[in-house]
């Protein structure tokens, strides 16, 4: 039976970045890293839209119903 050995976090990050740079090139690797940032902005926008349409009294009644 072969025992798996895990890399430490620093080594994992270095190898992952190297692999992305090799396969994607520097421009697309940067685009890949920035994908999560744009998704976060979209979720914040969604949450603000949801809050603006929220009936707070009804929401509180549903959440704090005894």
What does this entry look like structurally?
The chain has helices spanning 9-52, 56-63. By secondary structure, it is mostly helical. The protein is elongated, with a radius of gyration of 22 Å.
Provide tags for this entry.
single chain, 66 residues, mainly alpha, 2 helices
SSE topology:
Elements: H1 9-52, H2 56-63
Structural class: mainly alpha
Q: How many DSSP E strands?
A: 0
Low-pLDDT segments: none
Biggest β-sheet description:
none
Task: Give the termini distance in whole angstroms.
Answer: 55 Å
**Cα shape:** elongated
Proportion of strand residues:
under 5%
What's the helix count? Answer: 2
Radius of gyration: 22 Å
Helicity range of the residues? over 70%
Overall mean pLDDT: 88
Oligomer description: single chain
Order of helices and strands: HH
Gist of the model:
The protein has 66 residues and is mainly α.
């Amino acid at each position: 039976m072969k025992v798996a050995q895990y890399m430490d976090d620093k080594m994992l990050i270095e190898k992952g970045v190297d692999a992305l740079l090799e396969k994607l090139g520097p421009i697309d690797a940067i685009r890949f890293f920035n994908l999560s940032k744009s998704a976060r902005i979209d979720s914040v926008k969604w949450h603000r839209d949801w809050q603006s349409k929220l009936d707070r009294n009804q929401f509180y009644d549903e959440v704090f119903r005894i």
